[in-house]
Amino acid sequence: MGFIRDSIHGDLHLTDFELKLVDTVEMQRLRRIKQLGFTSLVYPGANHTRFEHSIGTLSLADKLATRLNLEEDVIELLRVCALLHDIGHAPFSHVSERALKHKHETVTKEIIKNSAITDIITERFNANFINKIIDGETKYGKIISGDLDVDRMDYLARDSYYTGVAYGVIDTERLLYSLKYDDNDDLIITDKGVQAAESTLLARYFMYPTVYQHHTTRIVNSMFRVCLKRMLEDNVVQEKELKYLDDGDLINIARNTKGLPEKTMKNLDTRHLYKKTDTINLTDIEYPEKIFQMDKKYLKEAEEDIANALNISPEEVIIDLPESLSYKEMSIQVETNNGLKALSEVSTVINSLKKAQYNYADLALYLSKENREKALDKNIKIEDYLNLPSDKL
Q1: Structural domain of 385
Q2: Under a CB-based contact definition with an 8 Å cutoff, are residues 365 and 382 in contact?
Q3: Does 241 reside within a domain?
Q4: 364 vs 261: CA distance, rounded Å
Q5: In terms of domains, do 145 and 23 share one?
Q6: I need a labelling partner for 70 at 20 to 30 A (CA). Which of 140, 169, 303, 364 fits?
Q7: How far is residue 110's CA from residue 104's CA, in Å, rounded to a whole number?
Q8: Is residue 248 part of a domain?
Q9: Does residue 96 belong to any structural domain of this protein?
Q10: What pLDDT is attached to residue 334?
Q11: What is the pLDDT of residues 49-87, one digit of tens each?
Q12: How far apart are CA 153 and CA 171, in angstroms?
């Protein structure tokens, strides 16, 4: 038995079996992968890691499973699933993932089924069943990855704490107390938990522009993503290797790779960042939800056309899509006097939020300071190079 003092949840106990998992190379790597990537360039305190988040998710999974009166062996299983749920993240997590072919969930499954950690897991559990739970399958998977899961509860509270942004403060204890299984083994919330659920969605809504999609963070993320794509295309690093690397490893590789990667890192190190040159708010697009389904080749073609207009390299032009803001919580069922109803039906706050979800999302054109001046002189606009049908533009 061991204890870890966590900034968010206090003293957390780990079993001897969990400590064996924690001490593996696969888990220790997460200590060196920041939860929010380059966000610390904007919020200096945002240096918390995937490791801390994994431990915190374990704690909340334990609390919720205990609250649901699940059996001890199930609670032990859920704790392990929570601990391992992010083990497949590449360096810089979601920043890198948008440049990769495989999602971190796929890599997580691979590590759990076929790595040094597998031998430890299979001492007690079935690796395939753990993957199913992490994937949100089965009755128990909804605790780890569901409409209102412990993963989300932890990262909102943790990201808020370390960035110093109060928007992410949620009533975690009330949420945990309000969740229950219905007759179909779906997780639902009681009517007493509606306000806590509302606070969770509102927290994400306000954290989105303030932290997750802060304009400076988006610019840095976009610059690094272009750098990573180049290194992958040139076989400087292979995607299959990323599950062994941490943030520092990837930064060092980029710094020591001549050309675009080295130049990008020098710019990031000295904060010579690209500038926002043009934007289109998604509320000005007729079907904003379709933006996230757009074939990336159209973005690439638009970048190439803008580059030709400015007589620069296509890699010097970035059209950045915002991250999709999924509100899975809206569909969680609420226990009311008139039966089960979706949260968005019960709550006028959530219904309004559904309509406002694209208010803080925009397409953005990023260029270096020098190229931005050229673009402004030539009146370069995203809408002239990217077909976004709408009578609002």
Answers
A1: 274-325+361-393
A2: yes
A3: no
A4: 22
A5: yes
A6: 169
A7: 10
A8: no
A9: yes
A10: 93
A11: 999 999 999 999 999 999 999 999 999 999 999 999 999
A12: 9
Provide the token pair at 330.
């809206």
Locus of tokens 């379709």:
290
**Beta bridge partners of residue 335, listed in sequence order:** 190, 340
Contacts with 359 (C-beta within 8 Å, 6 or more apart), sequence order: 281, 283
Whether the pLDDT of residue 121 is over 70: the answer is: yes
Of the candidates 293, 280, 283, the residue with the CA atom closest to the CA atom of residue 382: 280
Residue 353: strand pairing partners: none
The pLDDT of residue 393: 45
Model pLDDT for residues 237-281, shown as the tens digit of each residue: 999 999 999 999 999 999 999 999 999 999 999 999 999 999 999
- In 3D space, the residue among 206, 209, 199 whose CA is nearest the CA of residue 172 turns out to be 199
Instruction: Give the CATH number of the domain where residue 180 resides.
Output: 1.10.3210.10
Decide if pLDDT at 24 tops 90.
yes
**What's the rounded Cα separation, in Å, for the pair 78 and 142?**
11
Contact criterion met (CB below 8 Å) for 14 and 72? no
Q: Are residues 183 and 313 in the same domain?
A: no
- Mark whether 84 and 173 lie in a shared domain: yes
Summarised one tens digit per residue, pLDDT across range 365-390 is: 999 999 999 999 999 999 999 987 55
Strand, helix or coil at 146?
coil
Q: Which residue reads 């606009």 in tokens?
A: 381
- Picking from 97, 107, 99, 92, the residue whose alpha carbon sits closest to that of residue 34 is 92
Match 């690093």 to its residue by tokens.
237
Distance CA 183, CA 356 (A): 33
What is the radius of gyration, based on Cα positions, of the chain?
22
For 228-237, how does the pLDDT look when each residue is reduced to its tens digit (9 = 90+)? 999 999 999 9
Sign (positive or negative) of CA dihedral 72, 73, 78, 80: positive
Residue 29 has pLDDT above 60, yes or no: yes
Of 179, 211, 243, the one marking the end of a domain is: 211
Tokens of 337: 């006097």
Q: For residue 295, what are its two tokens?
A: 């074939």
φ/ψ of 366, rounded to 5, equals -115, 135
- What contacts 50, CB < 8 A, 6 or more positions away? 30, 33, 34, 35, 86, 89, 93
Mean pLDDT over each residue of the chain, to the nearest integer: 93
pLDDT given for residue 116 in this prediction: 87
